[in-house]
Design a protein that fits this description.
There is one protein chain. With 84 residues, this protein is an all-alpha fold. The protein has one domain. The longest helix has 14 residues. The radius of gyration is 14 Å and the shape is globular. The chain starts with a helix and ends with a helix.
Length: 84
């Protein structure tokens, strides 16, 4: 839902790159030096979080969002090349 309010995702690319560089040396930030698009693709392909989303996360949302919509957002993030 947040990503819909951000507008032009391309403008975030430099900021995301800078944050990832800064966090690479932080041992508690495991994703800073990983292939995030690959991780997102795996989540999508395997429906890895679907049961958790439907059982837990969806109950915490003020506005209901279908899991299919979440997946479409992840696809948009991958296509935007934010994590390249």
């Amino acid at each position: 839902m947040i990503i819909d309010r951000l507008g032009d995702l391309e403008s975030l690319v430099p900021l995301i790159a800078e944050v990832r560089i800064e966090r690479r040396n932080n041992p508690s930030c495991h994703s800073a030096d990983k292939d995030l698009n690959g991780i997102l693709k795996q989540i999508i392909d395997e429906n890895f979080y679907q049961k958790d989303y439907e059982k837990i996360t969806s109950q915490l949302l003020y506005d209901q969002v279908a899991y299919a919509d979440v997946i479409n957002t992840l696809i948009s993030i991958m296509e935007s090349r934010l994590f390249c």
